[in-house]
Amino acid sequence: MKKTKIEPILKWAGGKRQLLGEINKYLPQNITTYVEPFIGGGALLFDLQPKKAIINDLNKELINVYEVIRDFPDELIEILKVHTNNNSSDYFYSMRNLDRESKFLELNSVEKVARIIYLNRTCYNGLFRVNRIGQFNTPYGKYKNPKILDIEKIEATSQYLNKNNIKVISGDYKLALKGLRRGSFVYFDPPYLPINTASFTGYTELGFSLTDHTMLRDECIKLHSRGINIMISNSDTPEIRELFNDKSIFKIRTLSATRKINSKKEERGEITELLITNY
């Protein structure tokens, strides 16, 4: 049976839609359980549409998007119709500022997801960005006709998540790695190490430090020892190449990518990324 085409609901910094053709070339065969500990926009998940998968992200608002699309697609569509009809600069900022007000706590899960989708489709450069206290702070994008509501995409995503064995969790990425067996495949797409590390202070804007990347490498070695296939995407930096320089375990490939969504100008445009596997 031919798969229904599904594209990510959210525009996401570091999304893999344009790299799917290259990534697919290096996927292992006969995957029993697909695991993605940093799900983000989920481009590879929705392209492969595995029947059994575990998806996770530390961003609870993001995971709430997948849960609401799975469980309440009709209710979500109705609220997005309201956002579509009211879209303007003033309306955008009134919605954006909700997380600075006490009434934000009164929103139910569907209302919160509709807000995130609306802001994501109308904000500048499609950049999902929050400040240090978790408040959405990207400005209005002033698009002529943004597609805030995509009914077909919501319904297709909901059907996929309901008709298959897709475990959706939120927490530290290691939660998604517990109890995996041979035949599982883990795709790691963590927050990238910054390309320009001349003034690197230890953390990316999403809070993933060089130490965190080192710990992730160590988790990959543990999975390798258990016979589990892994793939990692990351920036092409000397630090990442050094972390994964054990040729007895890792194979490093270089891919060319075009990045349009990034808060840092130097990390937009044509860049190279690394694709690392243990097979």
Could you characterize what this model shows?
The protein is of the alpha/beta class and about 280 residues long. It is built from nine helices and seven strands, in the order H-E-H-E-H-H-H-H-H-E-E-H-E-H-E-E. Helix 3 crosses helix 7 (about 150-165) and helix 4 (about 75-85) packs across helix 6. It starts with 19 loop residues before the first helix and ends with a strand. About 30% of the residues are buried. Mean pLDDT is about 90; it is low at about 200-205.
Largest sheet: 7 strands, mixed
Averaging pLDDT over every residue, what do you get? 90
Order of helices and strands: HEHEHHHHHEEHEHEE
Global outline = globular
Please compute the radius of gyration using only Cα atoms.
19 Å
As a percent range, the share of helical residues equals: 25-40%
Low-confidence stretches: 198-205
Indicate the proportion of strand residues. 15-25%
In the sheet with the most strands, the strands line up as 3-2-1-4-5-7-6
Distance between the termini: 30 Å
Structural class: alpha/beta
Strand tally, please? 7
Give the number of helices. 9
